[in-house]
Amino acid sequence: MDHICAITGTLADDESPMTETGPLGWVKITIERQVPNPEYVQLQQLKASMVEQQFDMVKEQIPEGDPNAAAMVRLNVEFQIRAMFSALEAEMDQYVPQYEEAYISAPEADEDVLEVLNSIREALGLMDSMEERTEDEEDSEDPAGGEDT
Questions:
Q1: Quick one: pLDDT at residue 134?
Q2: What domain range includes position 45?
Q3: 142 Cβ contact partners less than 8 Å away, ≥ 6 residues apart
Q4: Is residue 45 part of a domain?
């Protein structure tokens, strides 16, 4: 899979080590939200349609001018239709997740990318902005990743 920086449009280097979240050092942004499950919505529409069809078939058997009887018959039809689909509906999620992903190249390597990423983080109310590492900080680290003392 090609990873393209959402800010600069540059492609990740093919030789870059890959991690679970993309090229090493890159930032992966995932937006997740819950949306109605289209199958669940369709099932609800089918059930409503079936209730109307069944109610229309027994409507003429309801005494005229008796709104309570009409309401009871409609409720009975709704119960029957709900019972028919209860097992299927129990297995179906009402909402499903929707994901969007974007990748941002290593912010330490490009000052403009770092600036845009930090503005995004600030706009979202995320803590601690990412900082560009200075050459002094890089030189002061030993090969094991700890700092010189």
A1: 46
A2: 38-92
A3: 148
A4: yes
